[in-house]
Amino acid sequence: MAISNKPIFGRAVIFVIYIFALLGFSYATNNEYGVLAAESSTEKENFCIIYFKEFGSLPEEKSKAHFHILLDNSKLDWCENHPESDPNSKVVLLSKGNCSISTQALNIQDRGGKGVFFITHSGKVANIDINDTAAESINITVGLISENSAERLKAMENTVTVKLFAPHSINFDFSLLVIWIIAMITVSIGAYWSGLIRFAIFFKEMNSLPGGEKELPNKPSVRVNTIEESSLNVSTYAIGGFVLCMGLMLVLLYFLYDYLVYFIIGLFVLASILSVHSCLEPLVLKIKGSFCKADFRCGGSSCHIDFRQVLLVSFAIAISIYWVIIRKEKYSWILQDILGVAFCIHMLKSIRLPSLKICFVLLVLLFFYDIFFVFVTPYFTVKGESVMEEIATGGSSTEMLPMVLRVVHFGFDPLAICYKQFSILGFGDILVPGLLISYCHGFDLVTSKKRIYFITTIITYGIGLLVTFVALFLMNTAQPALLYLVPCTLLPPIIIGWCKGELPTLWNGFKVVQPTDATRYPDVQVETNESAPGAANEIPSMPSTDNPTSKNSVNPSEISNEGSGERNYLLQ
């Protein structure tokens, strides 16, 4: 990784947390249910229900529904009649029992009941046994309610009255719009910053070669004082191993979620501290003044303190620890998203892939990885749930992985209580396409004054994310976002590069190699310049394709070394 100026511990934390970041995906549900509006003398609350239309219909508006007293008979089995209970004109809360729900509902109806709701763990209609013969005689409301909702109903004080209604769902969730905006801003900033750093380091590497300053289409707009390389030196085999490790970690999470989730939360806190510091440091260092620094004697040596750095580190630690404290509160998603955005931006500007070939291999492997763990794994799990969905939503655990953007559902939909509490988008759906977009921006800066690759991939990323959200509604199930994001972001730069004749350069990338490092790079073309004086400043011309000894073509944007007898190291 191109983070050589960071301590080894910091790099290890970033590497591990990056793997877990890629385990996330976009998830949301949208089903048409009903609403149970409960009121007591001290409180009011709405609950989501699933009701069977074949038994009895519900009004669409709350104002047209009638109040009924709620009777808790969850400890009674209404497969038989219970004279001690009086369900007359009441809505009854029952457990599933040892017979069909039709039989129990018919017994409630015969005693004058107005409705019956069965407490269920799964909330799936397919798991409910309905006796068709008995169902023909039922004309009261029959439905399901979750165990959690039932417990909250039982906890309400005094007599509880309920209204039952089934409003039309407004098929638009503003939380998805917020997630789209956050993702677009994060990718744009991270990729833009990454491109500037890549180009600044590349420019510095070029100028470190003999021959002085080289002519490039742009000049760096940021200063780099690191010893990082302009891109990560990684092979396709390493990418394959990385994706394999991700799959193994995902399986471990599935079986050991209750234990590993706390380990990941700890890693997320450490990564958040590093990321917040990294993102805010350029802004904080712009603060000037004598009060910012202090020099004093410490024993026999002089000590230097930068109060700006002290305050920034303290702030990063405090905000990360505060998130741990409030992470189970309803409003914690705001701070989690802020930390998540900082993390994604930091990762995008720190990890710079060397070529489109590496980007292609990574995105294609993760494309199939996402599809497998969302669509294929339900055929192998006991509960029929996808491994990805179970991990991303936390399953039955009270803890959720923090490696996602979370936005609470909001809007005008009266059935919002029936949705998952949050819409989520995994960090991987930001970072994976973002690495490609970052590379495209760096390539733009090195080769052209225009940012055609960067702008195009940003736009197509936004389109791919919108397509993902549309698929959520149309298919009514969890979607692997990379199924749509990978084609939308990967194909446009390939097509543009082919049309402009830049595809070979775009595909293989560019890297400045010092003469002493030539043996580390087998793809480097080594040429001996023994031309006459005055020819040293010329830009190398494209070698003839008829020359069988030429292993790599020379990009005109790559500049030769000066001086007679020196060697030019050109990598494409």
From TrEMBL:
Its main location: membrane. The keyword Transport does not apply. GO terms for molecular function: aspartic endopeptidase activity, intramembrane cleaving. GO terms for cellular component: cytoplasmic side of endoplasmic reticulum membrane; Golgi-associated vesicle membrane; lumenal side of endoplasmic reticulum membrane; lysosomal membrane. It is a multi-pass membrane protein. InterPro entries: PA_domain (IPR003137), Peptidase_A22B_SPP (IPR007369), Preselin/SPP (IPR006639). Keywords: Hydrolase, Membrane, Transmembrane, Transmembrane helix. Residues 542-563 have a biased composition (Polar residues). Residues 527-572 are annotated as: Disordered. The chain crosses the membrane at residues 12-29, 174-196, 237-257, 263-284, 305-325, 331-348, 360-380, 452-475, 481-499. It is found in: Endomembrane system. The keyword NADP does not apply. Residues 83-153 form the PA domain. Pfam families: PA (PF02225), Peptidase_A22B (PF04258). GO terms for biological process: membrane protein proteolysis. Belongs to the peptidase A22B family. This is Signal peptide peptidase-like 2B. It comes from Trichonephila clavata.
